[in-house]
Amino acid sequence: MNEPYELIDNTERRQYEFRIGERLALISYLKPSAGKDIFLTHTEVPISLGGKGIGSQLVEQTLKDIEQKGLEVVPLCPFVASYIHKHPQWKRLVKHGYHVQ
């Protein structure tokens, strides 16, 4: 896996980010002002960075941050849902009633 990148929670744009040179890998989210749910809606990694484990590292660091903040994940993004399915230890963060496949 690549070097660890610094995770940025860009609350203004509502996305978690890795800035890699001039490129940006991101996970978009929605977080209602009330409650402790966070909806992960979309993951995007530039094609030039694909296949290097950056997306997986981004999801893992995002989940760690969400856990530290005491939030519950609703994984609407298929990439995030797939990651959690492959790494079942993260299912503990998934909001009750949601299932990942």
Structural descriptors:
single chain, 101 residues, alpha+beta, 24% helix, 29% strand, globular
Written description of the protein model:
With 101 residues, this protein is α+β, with helices and mostly antiparallel strands. The protein has a single domain, classed as Gcn5-related N-acetyltransferase (GNAT) (Aminopeptidase), CATH 3.40.630. It has 2 helices and 5 strands; from the N terminus they run ββββαβα. A 5-stranded mixed sheet has the order 1-2-3-4-5. Strand 3 and strand 4 (37-44) form a beta hairpin. The longest helix is centred in the middle third of the chain and has 15 residues, at 54-68. The chain is globular, with a radius of gyration of 13 Å. The two termini are 24 Å apart. The mean pLDDT is 94.
Classify the oligomer. single chain
Relevant CATH superfamily: Gcn5-related N-acetyltransferase (GNAT)
H-E string:
EEEEHEH
CATH class (first level) name? Alpha Beta
Low-confidence stretches: none
Number of strands: 5
